[in-house]
Amino acid sequence: MSNVSERRLAAVLAADVANYSKLMGEDEAATLAALRRFRNDILAPTIGGYDGRVIKSMGDGWLVEFPSVINGIECAITIQNELADDPRITLRMGLHSGDVCFADEDVFGDGINVAARLQDLAEPGSLVISETARRSLDAKHSDHFTCLGSQNLKNIAEPLVAYGWGMSASAIQRYLFEVPDRPSIAVLAFDNLSDDDDQTFFAEGIAEDVISALSRFHWFFVISRNTSFSYQGRAVETEQVARDLGVQYVLEGSVRRVGNRVRVSTQLIDALANHYVWTERFDGVIEDIFDLQDEITQKIVAAVAPEYLTAEMQRARRKVVPRMDAWELSARAHWHISQFTKTDVAEAQNLLLKAVALDPQSSFGLADLSFTYLMQCVNGWSDEPDASKAEAVSLAQRAVSINGRDAYAMALLGAADLFSGRHQDAVRKLQDAIVLNPNDPHAYALLARSQVYLGDSKEALTNIKAAIRLSPRDPFIALWYSIRSLCGFVAGRHEEAIEWAEASIRTQPNRSSSYLDLAVNNAICGKLSEARQAVFDLKRLDPSASLQLAVRTHPFARSEYHERYQQGLRAAGLNR
Questions:
Q1: N- or C-end of the chain: fewer Cβ atoms within 10 A?
Q2: Would you tell me which CATH number, out of the four given (1.20.1530.20, 3.60.110.10, 3.30.70.1230, 2.40.50.140), belongs to the domain 6-176?
């Protein structure tokens, strides 16, 4: 039995070289030389400069003791910054403040165990710290860390809240997202195996309709098409997709079309158990494509939610098969809308006018066409804004009348109400949209937007988080980050509002109203230089931007928020 010779409280940094075995296998001599240079030129002098001491070395890993958490964090970040341009040596780091025990020429204790497990959470080039360590930091240091939520660490009895520095957005989302209690699934874009590249949109259309059909079942948690399709053309392991999106099941497939015949091959994978649930091949003709989609959907329900098989599976059957060229036009238009520029929205509108001419019964096409008119009105891109707004309302009403169970169409009708000053009507319609499809992220986002303009930041925050959870890689994520910023503004959490406005701009620099949010909240915080820079960037993007732009894009129902927003813009230098 070991006798503890010394025990003390310390900040412990655990670090190891990422992919060390792979690097050694590729070029052992070069890796050892790079590791030696790193130890001598960076690691040892930097640790010494922050009063640290290596208490254990494992060749490609180190445990380092520091007299304070701040010393350990500053040392870790300095080392990571020094290695930023090194193509060979990258480190994963974890830091915790806890007991360290020295005995029998080894080290033990809570500080060691937790730091090592936090290191396992870190990406190469990043640092993960515990809640205990973060509590030792001042605001200047703690603001650099992003909460990763409560984590269950191997061989650690209680879950710990972790915080990350230098982590990618996908990694942060992965740790924040827990797999829901109900069956959760991401349907990836189906591969086009046809000789004709133009059939890619046909393949996407089948996957799109499977997503739509699954979304109608309330017992499923279904990742939005916009996010699940973002992996298209990328070599990403299924397990990685599941971790990124916080789902248990992933459906992937392929489509081969020859003339009027089509073959759909699908594979349903349980990513948590790491095995195929089933694979299936479906053959048919284009006229029977929806029978194929229904059969695929029934197979999925049977595989992942057998307890619900006794429930009656009622689907609204389409009376007319949409023409695939109309769908392709709509899909292209949807991308243009997400670019948030005057030119792109005009192009989207032209494409959608052609699409609805080909398929007048497309509620999706009509809803997106409504969206383009609404964006032109709100952003000042229309010569006749009242006429554009009226057209937006008319098109959304038409979409809902064609398909009263289309949640997206109902959501766009709610958006038209919102920007027509009918805030409560908008909330009711958007709540109805969520009842129609509890997996539609656009409905949650637009509901949050309506609520925040009514001054209900608490409910708005809940719903915008739901939208981001359902589609964390959505083309419209910049808009959703902006709504989170507005939640902070209304709640008086202006530093938080600044962070989300900056995130919105980083994601989509073309969205002008995000600069308004950034300017206002910086001005309220007394950061006038940053506020004026935001106005300068806005003017560079949209020279005609004015206080009137904010009135159109931010229709606050309560005068107190409207006046506070306008005062912030004037303080930032937007005076007309």
A1: N
A2: 3.30.70.1230
Do 414 and 367 meet the contact criterion of CB atoms below 8 Å apart?
Answer: no
Assign domain 322-438 to its CATH architecture: Alpha Horseshoe (1.25)
Place of tokens 């503004």: 489
Closest CA to 364 of 387, 320, 325, 395: 395
How far is 566 from 516, CA to CA, in rounded Å?
Answer: 10
Decide if 107 contacts 100 (C-beta within 8 A). yes
pLDDT tens for residues 317-351?
A: 333 334 446 766 887 788 888 888 999 999 999 99
Spell out the alpha helix ranges (H) of 305-440.
Answer: 324-337, 342-358, 363-378, 385-402, 407-418, 423-436
List the domain boundaries for the chain.
6-176, 184-308, 322-438, 468-576
Which CA distances in Å does 175 have to 91, 121, 153, 500? 19, 9, 12, 19
pLDDT 10s digits, 148-207: 777 777 777 777 888 889 887 656 666 666 666 566 888 899 898 887 776 787 778 778
Of 321, 332, 328, 419, nearest to 370 by C-alpha is 419
**Cβ–Cβ under 8 Å, residues 124 and 83:** no
Which tokens sit at 113? 């165990």
Task: Please state which of the four CATH numbers 3.20.10.10, 1.10.3720.10, 1.25.40.10, 1.10.3210.10 is assigned to the domain occupying 468-576.
Answer: 1.25.40.10
85: part of which helix (H) or strand (E)? none
Q: What phi and psi, each to the nearest 5 degrees, are found at residue 310?
A: -75, -15
Does domain 184-308 bear CATH number 3.40.50.720?
no
Task: For residue 439, give the DSSP letter.
Answer: T
- Which residue from 501, 509, 506, 517 is spatially nearest to 549, judged by alpha carbons? 517
Cα 330 to Cα 349: distance, rounded to the nearest angstrom? 10
Got the DSSP string for 509-527?
TT-HHHHHHHHHHHHHTT-
Rounded Cα–Cα distance for residues 408 and 2 (Å): 65
Residue type, 257: R
